[in-house]
Amino acid sequence: MQTDNELKEIVRQKYSEIALQDKKTNESSCCGASCCSTEVYNIMSDDYTKLEGYNADADLGLGCGLPTEFAKIKEGDTVIDLGSGAGNDCFVARKQTGEKGKVIGIDFTPAMIEKARVNTEKIGFHNVEFRQGDIEQIPVTSNIADVVVSNCVLNLVPNKDAVINEIYRVLKPGGHFSISDIVLEGALPSKWKEVAELYAGCVSGAIQKQVYLELIEAAGFKNIILQKDKPIIIPDDILVNHLTAEEILTYKNGHTKITSITVYAEKPLAEKVACCEPGCCN
């Protein structure tokens, strides 16, 4: 079994490769039964092109939802994007926060950070920044963000519990998140857990939907809402790389579902301190 550090290195290497490609290359990169690569990513992606703030140079087709569409971002908000890639969600968020707000993108891969910074310079935004870091230890101070967004990234992190607790830490009391991710209902074929390509593509790293929601609740979040839930269909030309014909039939006829969900939740407002001395309350 691979260690957490080994899994992280798989992600770093794969997304470093993707950072050097444009969306069109990613979408046409499946090269046959023996080496299908980023095809596993774009079968999950949603269409960003109609969202205000969309920037084609920042869209690598890597997401599995549209969290910024559901994130209730307001003018002047501070927004953190976890796994910001080339900056796609950050630029959409910047359109919503305006010049008075601030957007911070966090990514694990140096090549993605470099690509995002180049895109930011092209656009001329002065209130969007990108920081390299591990989202299990988000490199920002506590209680700073009004909104946290993330698009198909928690699956890439071995310790999802740590990330959810970090999201709670960086949000202001009363702040909220909107996160798109891949979850499971039923058991994934066991051999998929050993396939690096599918791990980096968010499939093998998926956990059960109910467990995912329970982690969010256990961290202290309230008003948890499932904003979107859509099935992910893995094409046969990908399945044949990892499963036998009999295993494919069993998988298709079974009860396993791979879905993309977008989840919203709020960090509660700080509790008021009880008045303990005469005259201490206004």
Keywords:
eight-stranded mixed sheet, globular, 282 residues, single chain, Rossmann fold
Q: Could you walk me through the main structural features you see in this protein, from its secondary elements to its overall organization?
A:
With 282 residues, the protein is α/β, with parallel strands linked by helices. The relative contact order is 0.15. Strand 4, helix 7 and strand 5 form a beta-alpha-beta unit. It has helices at 4-19, 23-27, 39-42, 67-70, 88-97, 110-123, 160-170, 196-200, 209-218, 236-239, 245-253; strands spanning 78-82, 102-107, 128-132, 145-151, 171-185, 207-208, 222-231, 257-266. Strands 1, 2, 3, 4, 5, 6, 7 and 8 form an eight-stranded mixed beta sheet that branches. Mean pLDDT is 81; it is low at 27-42. It has eleven helices and eight strands. The chain has one domain (4-23, 35-266): Vaccinia Virus protein VP39 (Rossmann fold, 3-Layer(aba) Sandwich). The N and C termini lie far apart (60 Å). It is globular. Helices cover 33% and strands 21% of the residues.
Q: Number of DSSP strands?
A: 8
Supply the CATH class. Alpha Beta
DSSP helix count?
A: 11
Distance between the termini: 60 Å
Stretches with pLDDT under 50, minimum 5 residues: 27-42
Structure class = alpha/beta
Helix fraction, binned, reads 25-40%
Succession of helices and strands: HHHHEHEHEEHEHEHEHHE
Strand content bin? 15-25%
Total discrete domains: 1
